[in-house]
Amino acid sequence: MKIQKSIHLLNTQQGSKHSIRPFFIQTMRTLHQARTPQFGDLPAEIKLCIAEHIPPASASYLSLCNRTLEQILGPQSWSSLQHAGYEDRMEFVLTLPRDLPADFSCHGCAR
Predict the structure, then answer these.
(1) pTM value?
(2) How many other β-carbons are positioned within 10 Å of the β-carbon of residue 108?
(3) Is 61 exposed, middle or buried (0-12, 13-18, 19+ CB in 10 A)?
(4) Could you list the mean pLDDT of each consecutive 10-residue stretch along the chain, which spans 111 residues?
(5) 3-state secondary structure of 106
(6) How many helices (H) and strands (E) does the chain have?
């Protein structure tokens, strides 16, 4: 709303022939229409690179977010979690019930 008010004020004010007003108005409209980039907008290669630089449990969680991420990250993230140490597997198993409260975890699940 503030951007629209600014544009309205600039439109109603009188300026000189060589005013910066048209440029400013166009810039404000562009900023108003721009949207914040999302993680889903990134190319698959960058998502894979991110997954390679986070802990195995986090990469596995990321692959659970949606089908696209599951297809991109799934096999590698699950394989890295399977070959990770006991602590990493326990982190995954014990953190998962926060998102799935009806389920519970035990130490045997991390083996």
Answers:
(1) 0.56
(2) 7
(3) buried
(4) 55 54 70 73 88 88 88 84 86 78 62 54
(5) coil
(6) 6, 0
